[in-house]
Amino acid sequence: MPTQQEQHSIQAWSLINRKYLGKGIRVKRFRKPSRCQIRNRVLLAVLMANDIKLSQLAEELGVSSRSVSAWVYEGRIPGKKNLDKVCQFLGYPHHILFNRTVTANSPIICQPSSSRFMRRTLTRSPVDNKILTGLCMVHDLSVSDVSEWMHIHPGTFRKWLHQGTLPSPSFQDRAELFFRIPKFILFADCILHDS
C-alpha cells in the first residue's frame, strides 16, 4: 500500500501527464522521407503541389491509407478500378501518374549542394506546372538553385512553373537530365493544357 507521500507524488504525475497529453501532437502536413524511399515521385509531386495529404486521397477514393502509401513509397500500381479513380480525381492520365519506367528507376537526383524550397513560390502567384513545382517540393529545391544548376535564368524557370510555358526542346532536355524524369511527364501540364 503506497504511503501518503507516494500517493501524492502519483497524483501529481497524473495531473502533469494529463496536461501535456491532452494537447495532442503537432504533425507536419507531409512526412520528410529520405529520397530513396519515394518510388513514385510524380504522384507525390502532384499531391504536394495541390496540398492533398495521402490520407485525404485515400478517403476521397475509398481506399486504405496503406494502399496510397504503397503507391507513393513502394511504387505499386493500383488495380484498374482504383487507377481510373485516382487519375480522374487528380486530372492526369495513368501513363503520367503511374509510369512504370519512372517508378522502377526512381533515382536520386544529382543536386550539387543542399537547397530549400520556398513556400512563397506557391503563394506569390498561381502555379500552372504542378508536376514540376511538386518535384521541387519533393526534393526541397529552391527555384534559384535549380536554375543555377541547370544553367538557365531564374525568371525562365519561374515561367515554366507559374505560367505553364513549354520551353524549347533543348531546355526540356536539360530539365529531363536534371530531374531524371521524361520531359513528356515533366511538362505534362503544358502539353495537356494546349491539347
Automatic annotation (TrEMBL):
This is Helix-turn-helix domain-containing protein. InterPro entries: Cro/C1-type_HTH, Lambda_DNA-bd_dom_sf. Residues 43-97 form the HTH cro/C1-type domain. GO terms for molecular function: DNA binding. Pfam families: HTH_3 (PF01381). It comes from the Bacteria. Transmembrane segments: none annotated.
